[in-house]
# Entry
Amino acid sequence: MSNITEPLIFKHSRTGRSAAGQYPQGATAEVPEKFRRRKRAALPEVSELQAVRHFTRLSQLNFSIDTHFYPLGSCTMKYNPRACNAFAMLPEFLGRHPLAPSAVSQGFLSCLYELQEMLKEVTGMKGVSLTPMAGAQGEFAGVAMIRAYHRARNDLQRTEIIVPDAAHGTNPATATMCGCTVVEIPSLANGDIDIEALKGALGPKTAGIMLTNPSTLGVFERRIQEVAKLVHEAGGLLYYDGANLNAILGKVRPGDMGFDVIHMNLHKTFSTPHGGGGPGSGAVGVGQRLLPFLPIPTVGKDGDKYRWLDENDLPQTIGRLSAFMGNAGVLLRAYVYMRMLGREGMHRVAEFSALNANYLLARLKKAGFEAAYPERRASHEFIITMKRQAKELGVNAMDFAKRLLDYGFHAPTTYFPLLVPECLLIEPTETEAKEELDAFVDALIAIQAEAEQDAAKVKGAPYTLPVRRLDDVRAAKQLDLTYGMRSTE
Amino acid sequence: MSNIPADLKYLDSHEWARVESDGTVTIGISDHAQGALGDLVFVEVPEVGKSLTKGGAAAVVESVKAASDVYSPVSGEVVAANDALSGSPELVNSDPYGQGWLFKIKPSNTGELQQLLDAKAYEKVVADAH
Amino acid sequence: MPFIPHTETEISEMLAAIGAPSIDALFDEIPAALRIKSLAGIPDALSEMEVGRLMQARAQQDGRPLNFLGAGAYEHHIPAAVWAIVTRGEFYSAYTPYQAEASQGTLQLLYEYQTMMSSLTGMEVSNASLYDGASALAEACLMAVRAHRKSKSARIVVPSSLNPTYLSVSRAVVEGQNLSFTVLPYESGKGTLQFSKLEALKGEDITAVVIQQPNFFGQMEDVDAITEWAHANNALVIAVVNPLSLALFKPPGEWGTKGVDIVVGDGQPLGVPLSSGGPYFGFMTTRMEHVRQMPGRIIGRTVDLDGKQGFTLTLQAREQHIRRSKATSNICTNQGLLVTAATIHMSLLGAAGLEAVAATSQQQAAKLVDKLARIPGVKVVFDGYRFHEAVLQLPARVSDVLDALAKRNIVGGLDLSKLYPELGNALLVCATEMRTDADLDTYASALADVLERKP
# Structure
C-alpha cells in the first residue's frame, strides 16, 4: 500500500455511458404524471470495467484480516475460512425466498436447527434464537426478555440494569433503549468487579446485570459464582455479553456460571466476516426462565420435519426483530465453521487464543511495556498502557497505533476500555502464527525507540498510507456527507 | 492552569453562572471544561421559554471524541440562548466566559444561587481532578 | 489442526516465554468447579471436502423453485462483477473503519453510497445503513420522536397497507419507549389508505405519519396528499420505499410541496440475493436539519495533515461508544458488506439500468396478473396503478394451493389470509425482470391445473 488515491466514482462518469449488458432492454413504463420521477437520480454512468477497476482499487486501500495482522481488541479478528463463504453462497441458498414454504426449505432449516443445538451446547443454555442481526440487537433482545420476564411476574418496579464501568457502550445504550435506567458500578484495581459496590447497587428495583466475562479488561471475573448468587438472591437476572466468548469456548460455559441470557457475536467467535462493519449476527441463548420470551422466528423439529416457530408457538415472545430471519446467510457461515471445527476444535479456539495473548503479553512486558493488569492471566486479549510514554515522551497510545500502520499492522483498539488511561487493547486470536506475533512485538519495540529519539516522527504517523491523519474537527463542523453537498470542487 | 474568574459562581460539573444586573443568570462552561473536551464541533442550546430545574440537563456540548450534558445551575425559564454557537461552536473554546456563553435564565428561586461554588471552591474541584 | 498454525515446538517455546507449564494452566483463574471437560453435543469435525458434500446435499434438498413471491424481498439479476468484488478479502474481512487511514477503501465507498442513496430518494443526507428495512422503520420512528420536539405524543400513524412485519418489528423494537401506533384502514377495492380516516385525526398531536410506496399490496398511495396533510397537521412524514421503484417513481424528497422528513427501506433489491432473508441492509436518508438525530454510522469527507482529501467516520458523538446510555441508538455495526454490493450494483446499472429493471419488472408483473386473472375463479382484488406486485383472490384455500404449487416446483406467492382475513383467499404475487414470458405461462397453467383439481 502506498500513497495512492482513487477518485470518486462520479469523476469517471460520462453522460450516456453504461454497462448495458447488465440490464434488460426494451421495456418502458407508462407512469402516471403524479407518480413519475422527473429527473433521473445522479448515479454514476460508467462502463463495467471502470466500475470493476474503481472498486477493486478502493478495496486495495483497506487493511483486512486477509492482508494484515489485525489485533483489534474485543473484535476477534480471526481468519474467516473461505469455505464458509463458498458453501453459504451455493445457488440454492442464495435463490431461496425467505417466505418460501417449508416443503422447499428443509435443507436450509436443518442447518439453522443444528446451529441452534450446537450453540446451546457450547453456551450451556436451554434455548437459542438466531434472529438478532448484530451484537447490539442481541443485547436488545436479552434485556427485552429480562423486562418481559419481570413483567410477566407482575414485578413491575424492576427497571434498573447494573453495568460495570468497563462495559461496552452498547450495554448502557441498550438498557436505555429498553426503557431501563443504568446503574454503573466500578471495577477493582485487579480488574474484578467491586462486590461491595454490587451489593450496594442491588435491590428491589434491580432487573438484572450485564456482564462480559472475561471482561473488557482482558481478565476473567473470578468471583462470578458469588456475583450470580447475589444477583439472583436480589431477584435480578444475569445477562452475558458474548463479546469475549472466544476466550472461553469449550472451557467454561455461561450457563454454568449462572447466566440467564446471553448473546453471541457470531462474527467474532464463529468467524463470520466483519465485512467492513457488518453484517454481524447476535444470536441469543436463554436459560429455562426466559424460554417463553425468545424472539421469533426460531426453528423447531416435528419428527423429521423442520418448521418455523412463531407467535403461535411462543405467545409470550418479545416479537420479531427483523423482516424475515435475521442475517440468514451469516448463520449458514457460522454453521459451516462449527461443523469444520467439530468438538475438539471448539476447545482449541480458547486454548490457542489464550496462548497467543499470553505469549504476546509476556514478550511485551519483557520489552518494557506496562501491562494494565500485570498480575493477571490474559484472557484472549490484554491491555497495555502508554501513560508513561505519554507523560515522558509526549507520545500517546494513538500515536503508537498510527505508527503501527506504517509497520504493516492494524492498530489494536485504542482508548477502550475508558477507565485505563492511554490504553491499547490487544487481541491476536488463535489463527495467527508465532512469527506474526514476534514481528508485531518487534514493531512496537522499534516504535518505542523512535519515540525516544524523535517523538515528532511518531506523532506525525502514518506516512505510508493512502492518507495521513485526518482533520476530524473539520469533518464534524463542515459536514460534507455527499458528493456535491459542498462546492469544494 | 485554566482561567477561573473570581466574580462567577460554579457547579462542580464545570458550569459557570453570572448574575446580571437585570436579575437574569447567564450560564456557560468553564475554561477547564472546554479544554478537557477539546475543539467543539456542535453545541445544542435550550429553546427560549423552556423551564429548567436546577441540576437538570439543559444543553449539550460536543467535540469529536466526547459529548457532554450541561446542567442548569439554577431553576427557571430560559430567556435567551446563544444562537451564534450553531455556526461557530469554537467560540466556547476561544472565549468561554464571553462570546461562548450558552443560555440565560430568569431564576425562579434566587436562593439556589447561594448553593453554588465560588471561584476558590471551584479551583479546588479542578485541582482535585488532576 | 484446522485454522491453528502452531507447531509443537512453537507451543513449547511460547509456554516457556509465558512461564506456564501447559496451555491448560492459562485457564487457572477460572474456578475449577466451572471448568467443563467436553462438549458431547458437538459432532466430530468435518474436512472441507466433507462439509462441502453436506452443504451441497442440503442445498439440493431445497432446489431452485420458480419464484413468484416478493413481499419485501425481490429476485433480481445481479451482475457477476458485484459479488466477485464484494467477496474480495479487503472488503470481506475488514472491520468498522475506526482507523480511517487504513480503511479509506471502505470509507470512500460508503461516502459514494451516501451520495447515491440521497440522490435516489431525493433527500439531503444518508447514513451508512442499518440492519434491514423493518428495523430501519423502527429506528425512523424513534428518530422522529427525537427530531419533532414540539410533538409530545410520541404517536405514529401507520396505514394497514404497510408491510405487517415492519409494523411488528417496530412495535418490538420501540416497546420500552412509550411510543404508540395508530393503524388506519385501507380502502376496500383500492388497497390504499382511507384518506377520510386520516382527516378524522385533524387537530390531534401526531409525531409522524408513515407511508409505504408502493404499499404492501403493490398499490400506489396518494403520497402527495398524505404528505401535505401530515405537514399541515404538524406531523413529520416517514416514507418506506423500494429503492428500485424510485428509478421510475417520484422520490420521497419531492412528495407534497416540501418532501418527506425521513426515508427508509430495504436495500435488498439493489444487488443483494434473496438468500433466505438476509443479510440485507436497511437504508435511511433525511434532511440536513435532522442529521444529528439520525442513528447509525455516517461518513464525512475531510482533509489530512497535508491537505489531501480523505474520508472518516463523523458525528460520532451521537453514538453508543461515546454517548453510552444517551446515544441515539444502541446500533454499533451497519451492514457494510451489503452496502458494498449495492454501491457496486448501482454503479454498474446506473439510473438508466435501474429504470429498465423496474420497468421490465412492472411489465412482467402486469402480464402475470393478466394471465392469472383469466383463470376461472381468480380475481384481481384491487384496482389502480401498481408496481410489480398484486393481490389476487383464489377460489380455494391459499395454503393448499401454495402447497400444491410447491410440489410442482413453484413458489406461488404469499398467503394473505391470516394477515388480512377480510380479503378471504387472498394471494400476493410478484414478478420481476427475472421471470420470462414462458415462466409466466408455466405458473398460469400450473395454477389453472391445481384449481381445477380442487386441492
Observations:
- Chain A has a mean pLDDT of 95.
- Chain A has 15 helices and 13 strands.
- The longest helix of chain A spans residues 328-366.
